[in-house]
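Retro notes, item 3 of 5
We never archived the inputs for the tryptophan complex last cycle. Fixing that now. Sequence and ligand:
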Amino acid sequence: MELVTETQVRGKLSEVSKRFLARPERELTEAVLGLSATRKSLPAWLFYDATGSALFEQITELPEYYLTRTERALLTSYSDEILELASAGKSLSMSELGSGTAAKTGILLQAAVRRQGLVFYQPIDVSKVSLDTAREYINQRIPGVTVLPQLSNYVIEPIQLERHAGKKALVLYIGSSIGNFLKGERIRILRRLRDAMEPEEGLLLGTDLAPSQHKSLYALFAAYDDSQGVTAKFNLNVLTRLNREVGMNFNPNLFRHLIRWNAVESRIEMHLESIVRQEVMVPAGLDAMELRIRFGKGETIHTENSYKFNTGMIDEMFTAAGFSVTKVWTDPLQTFALTLAAAR
Ligand code: TRP
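Structure as it came back at the time:
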């Protein structure tokens, strides 16, 4: 394998991005750096272009994808209690990290409108299409909510919460998106969020839970490798995106969706496995140097982790990031948890 330095990749990418102005250079750099490493990986946000965002919406409706269903049921049962605890007598405004189309958030917003009349809602997401869908949906269905969308990548851009006089912010970070980050990254994201919050303000975090006597590994596998192949398509779409936005020449037919359960790390891993020995190009920029990414047969690109938590992990993460847990809600089979925590 040809060794590529970070400087080389950064130099090249600044050239490539002059030709393909589709994404901020920093984002593309992160993606190509991941492919140039000895163990190839790609960042999680790369999934969510227009096609990927639509495919992800389909995933959330799959019979095998129990996460969305379970979290929605928890929100339906406990919205009033969540809002009561989070508001502590004050009027709330809501911000949401990785809101997507905010399909589940409607439940909380509706409950908040019942309690306080008017609500400011700030969805923050990397997907423009999802934000547009969210705004339209809420404007049509939940009068009383003012939607203030923010197109932003909360992983690498500053987190800015919309402040409103006299309002206490409640931040939503649901869908187990936090589980798509490594331990250190999770704490870093939550700390940056904590710094944007006032003491006593609330964070509602959704986390998928580890397998147990009630939750089989089989159910977990099915959720990430569904029978209709939607998750496989979603995973493979990152290659199409890199072709379009970086000008690479992946043949998606020469890769396959692969999942692994990593028991030591308590995570589902998503990979794209190269089914042949092959080479893929990052095209030449003004430097006239193309970069070759080599794949052995069976070599994988690690595209995503989805950590599965237990209460110890959740507590530890909140403590490290400057929050204290207020209350945890789970379903009877303990497959999913919603945790309300307060900024310290
Ligand atoms: N946050 C979701 C999860 O971890 C994202 C997700 C669902 C996902 N299915 C996926 C990410 C398949 C990559 C591949 O469950």
